[in-house]
Specification:
Layout lengths: L11 E5 L2 H5 L9 H13 L4 E3 L15 H12 L25 H8 L9 H31 L7 E5 L21 H9 L5 E5 L6 H7 L5 E8 L21 E6 L5 H18 L3 E6 L16 H13 L4 E5 L6 H19 L1
Parallel strand pairs: 1-2, 1-3, 3-8, 4-5, 4-7, 5-6, 7-8
Helix pairs in contact: 2-10, 3-5, 5-6, 6-7, 9-10
């Protein structure tokens, strides 16, 4: 089936890919599979997409949503020799545990990560800096493209899509700490930049709750955040009663689903999310795309099939919103990730042909 996007002059498609992120293997737990499989599927479905390369920005994009001391910690990690930091740390520093401030780089992990699996290795820190820069620059490109296309076509809505391959992922990172293998909140960085030009909806379809994205944007009335996820992790966020901050009521929607749900349960929740996006009337969409809801991924909590991702791609494309896509979770299973990514972007391209 030919799913190449139609050569429509009002449709602009691109990727904003940092070469470091595309080619870095990453040690330990941060799997590059999400990036390699996503890029392969995206490039097959959109072979004429522009290929943009972000400029390094010395952490400026990360500073748009993260504290300076945390960004400086990650920058320091990127400069350390590979292997210089010894793991595992085997401690999560609750406030009750802390008597003195940590005195080593290893010790400062207890200050800046909420779990013991997230590690500030040089490769991971460098990837985080590149991914943050790409997220903001991709958002700027999207806003500028939409403005130019709208002016050229007399105010006609202009579908546009930009993929920002991100590794490590980002949706668990909070403003002052990282965790869940995430260092910088890439989707939130993109949303914050796009909110300078209009209203933004963020849709997170990763298996786990996007607690970082939610927390960063929780009090911003110009951004609607939605997460469809398996109930549970991280256990302290992701519940349905979390509906937005004091200055932004009804701008956060959590749709936690029972373990083992399958698409029969997932699909109505997804439609609820799309309805909420429609009511919010955003100018832009940021999609946090994870594949770990697939039944063969990791814990396989939501039991989606590869073909189900095709439905998700088609339905999101039907919104015809200018969209930026970041890559979130997968557990290193290349075959299932590649199948899900292929169905997703073929479904999207089919809708935009």
């Amino acid at each position: 089936m030919n799913t190449t996007a139609k050569n429509d002059p009002t449709t602009v498609i691109a990727e904003m890919t940092a070469p470091y992120v595309e080619h870095q293997e990453f040690p330990d737990l941060v799997y590059p599979t999400s990036v390699t499989a996503t890029l392969a599927a995206f490039r097959r479905s959109f072979p004429t997409a522009k290929r943009l390369v972000p400029e390094q920005d010395d952490g400026a994009a990360a500073l748009s949503v993260h504290s300076r001391d945390y960004v400086d910690f990650v920058k320091e990690g990127s400069r350390r020799p590979e292997g210089a930091t010894k793991f595992p740390l085997n401690v999560v520093a609750l406030p009750e545990l802390r008597i003195s401030e940590p005195r080593t780089f290893e010790g400062r992990h207890t200050q800046y990560f909420f779990d013991e699996v997230t590690r500030a290795t040089p490769a991971v820190c460098e990837g985080a800096l590149h991914s943050a820069a790409a997220s903001r620059q991709g958002a700027r490109w999207l806003a500028d493209t939409v403005a130019a296309q709208t002016a050229e076509h007399a105010g006609r809505p202009s579908p546009a899509l930009v993929l920002v391959p991100s590794r490590p992922p980002g949706h668990h990172a909070l403003s002052t700490v990282g965790g869940g293998l995430c260092l910088f909140a890439n989707a939130a960085i993109a949303a914050r930049e796009l909110s300078r030009s209009g209203r933004v909806a963020v849709l997170d379809i990763d298996q786990d709750h996007g607690n970082g994205t939610q927390t960063v944007l929780y009090d911003d009335p110009s951004v609607l955040t939605i997460s469809i996820h398996a109930e549970g992790w991280p256990h302290v966020a992701g519940f349905s009663e979390e509906t937005g901050g004091l200055n932004a009521p009804h701008t956060n929607l959590n749709l936690p689903l029972p373990t083992g749900s399958g698409f029969a349960v997932y699909a109505p929740a997804f439609e609820t999310a799309l309805d909420a996006i429609g009511r919010f009337e955003p100018d832009y969409l940021v999609l946090a795309l994870g594949y770990d809801a697939h039944r063969e991924q990791g814990f396989g909590l939501l039991r989606l099939e590869s073909e189900d991702f095709g439905v998700l791609g088609r339905r999101i494309a039907e919104l015809r919103l200018p969209t930026l896509v970041t890559t979130e979770g997968c557990y290193g299973y290349y075959e299932s990730t590649a199948e899900a990514a292929t169905h997703f972007f073929e479904g999207w391209a089919e809708q935009w042909r």
